[in-house]
Amino acid sequence: MVENTKFQSSYSYGFIDETTKKEIRRKTLKAVCIPGYQVPYSSPEMPISRGWGTGGLHLTLSLIGRSDVFKIIDQGSDASVNACNLRQFVQMMTRCAVTFDTAKATIIQSRHRVPEEILTDRQILVLQVPQPEVLRSVERHEFRTRQMHAEADYAKLWVSLYEAYVQFGTMMRGSGYPIKVNGRYIATPSPIPRWDTPNLSMANCLYLFGAGREKRIHAIPPHTRVEPLEFEDVKFKVEEFKGILCSACGQDRAFMDEIFDDQERRKHVINDSNFLDKVRTAVRPPQRLFTNPNNFDDPS
Q1: Which of 263, 265, 243 lies closest to 252, judged by CA?
Q2: Where do the structural domains in the chain lie, given as residue ranges?
Q3: Which among 290, 232, 255, 8 is positioned nearest to 113, based on CA atoms?
């Protein structure tokens, strides 16, 4: 404990120096003011490699205060190696409280999932983004993608969606499905499943997206309209879990992971570990028992 105290006291609060934190906060404010727009930032060095969550850490450590409660999840799990290590690092450098409970957290950092519970206006969800440029799959030159965004020229992206539909009968975007933010910029929601995409629209919380390797920040402010790209006759659809029950709690209508037991029998388990614990114990039922109820025939 003494060694940890000495280590923490030798750094600025939250590890990053104050000047850099101010710069990141200014860039974050610009991203909030222009929903969906990618704002370049300095992406300072961290004690982990870029590509392992540095963008999320930059945002978290620049915004977190001494009264905040921090939660981090990795693909729905609080207990993965990546989540545990980053949680320990943030706690060591800030002495802030940490939690597994989504409802108690004020800042939630996530990789590849949006929590199942409805987030409030007192919460910030920080998403780690490996590739913030939604046009990278159709245009490899950075100067061209910036020009395309400036001119709202997304024809190549629409063509790629159309070609995928013609060839495969579907959009072929399992995660990171492109979205239009506030009727203007096309952006990536990070590699979250399609199931989470409707939860971004008109949400109460602030969504922040940090890409440390690519040095970009973008944001979706509260109560902002978010629309997945779709054609008039080919509508956006989320993953189909209708009729599938969680083997751990017997519930359905949440995003499921497919697993196999010792006898190689296929099972499904609710992906969000904290949400699953609440459903199983029912000590405090989640604010919303089922995600995206409108995607089912019976929305009860």
Answers
A1: 243
A2: 2-134+177-225, 240-293
A3: 255
Local structure of 82: helix, strand or coil: helix
77-100: average pLDDT: 95
So what's the pLDDT on residue 290?
46
* Helix residue ranges per DSSP H, 122-173: 142-150, 155-168
pTM of the predicted protein model: 0.91
Nearest to 294 by CA among 242, 228, 244: 242
Q: Of 3.40.50.11310, 3.30.70.3270, 3.40.50.620, 3.20.20.300, which CATH number belongs to 2-134+177-225?
A: 3.40.50.11310
Check residue 298 and give its pLDDT: 41
Q: Which two tokens stand for residue 110?
A: 């996530």
Residue with tokens 């060694």: 3
CA pseudo-torsion sign 164, 187, 117, 110? positive
pLDDT tens-digit profile of 186-235?
999 999 999 999 999 999 999 999 999 999 999 999 999 999 999 999 99
Terminal-residue alpha carbon distance, the chain: 50
C-alpha separations of 19 from 16, 205, 248 in Å: 8, 27, 48
What's the pLDDT tens digit per position in 95-137? 999 999 999 999 999 999 999 999 999 999 999 999 999 999 9
Six token digits for residue 124: 């910030």
Task: Report d(CA 12, CA 214) in Å as an integer.
Answer: 25
